[in-house]
Amino acid sequence: MTDMTYRRLGRSGLKVSVLSFGSWVTFGDQVDTALAKECLTAARDAGVNFFDNAEAYAGGQSEQIMGDAIAELGWERHSYVISTKIYWGIHKDVVNMANTLNRKYLMQAIDGSLERLGLDFVDLLYCHRADPETPIEETVWAMSDIVSSGKALYWGTSEWTAEELRAAYEIAERHHLHKPVMEQPQYNLFETKKVEREYARLYEDWGLGLTTWSPLASGLLSGKYADGIPEGSRASLPGYEWLRDFVTDPAKNEQVKELTVIAERLGVTVSQLAIAWCAANPNVSTVITGASNVDQVHENLKALDALEQLTPEVLAEIAEITSPFRKR
Ligand code: NDP
Known about the structure:
Oligomer: single chain
Strand content: 5-15%
Distance between the termini: 27 Å
Number of strands: 10
CATH superfamily: NADP-dependent oxidoreductase domain
CATH class: Alpha Beta
Shape: globular
Order of helices and strands: EEEHHEHEHEHEHEHHEHHHEHHH
Bound molecules: NADPH dihydro-nicotinamide-adenine-dinucleotide phosphate
CATH topology: TIM Barrel
Strand order of the largest sheet: 3-4-5-6-7-8-9-10
Helix content: 40-55%
Radius of gyration: 19 Å
Number of domains: 1
């Protein structure tokens, strides 16, 4: 198995494993603390040093499980990088505590996350979405203050527009505040717009780092939805009905079949090919993988074997399949 490599998170000095591990959907709904310990251990044994979480995942349970699991495993705090993300809130019925990036919410949300994680600080703190109702300046000041307080080491955003990112960066620069360091966009063979087009200038201009999500498009790129929705899969779960049309889309599943032919030729699985494809983009600092069991963790983290084989010719072949009009 190819050794893990580490990339700088944008222009910051922090190094993150090029493949990382996150807990959306899984921790809480599919993975309890015992299984979390197994998955986290498998990831760490493969060289993963970055673990992604969010306040909203399973209504706070995901942070609780990851925090408990890491405590029980006895990992030393300096040996891993952990994140959380805030915006949606978990006190949905209280004014100011949901769907916001106002100062009051941010200052209280970080304390709640730290309590559930059982930590004094997170390494990375994200604004999980943009909030058009709060001035960006208020959010930037609050995030910078959280970093100054030591409760987070770096801050960033998730799914902001390039325009919002530029505004935040300029406000931080003007007031000598901590600048946003990283963005967390979706990036996979079926979703490339933000990473490849919208943010294109931000990598060079101010060294934006990327921690990308859903490398398998929620499992579609593993090929598991070719013949419908398997029992126990993400799309079969209550609350994820919205995913069903997407993952069973015949045209997309046909593309996955064609990608599988390339993967087989290279001696890897189509999941590994899809994850490696994300890592092949040098602007991606880390590809956050997800898994509902340990076998998936093992399989996915072997994707670096596939990365070595993604020559320009293979990448062109892949582009022909996923987007005949888009060349990398
Ligand atoms: P993926 O697109 O890779 O989907 C992961 C899911 O696909 C697994 O939970 C599993 O679901 C299935 N799967 C994974 N590996 C395999 C395999 N080898 N074979 C078959 N099925 C497989 O990633 P996620 O959507 O989970 O996103 C990864 C992480 O990114 C999240 O955990 C989270 O940390 C972050 N994220 C951030 C978001 C944001 O807004 N900032 C949004 C979404 C995610 P199953 O077995 O149940 O079918």
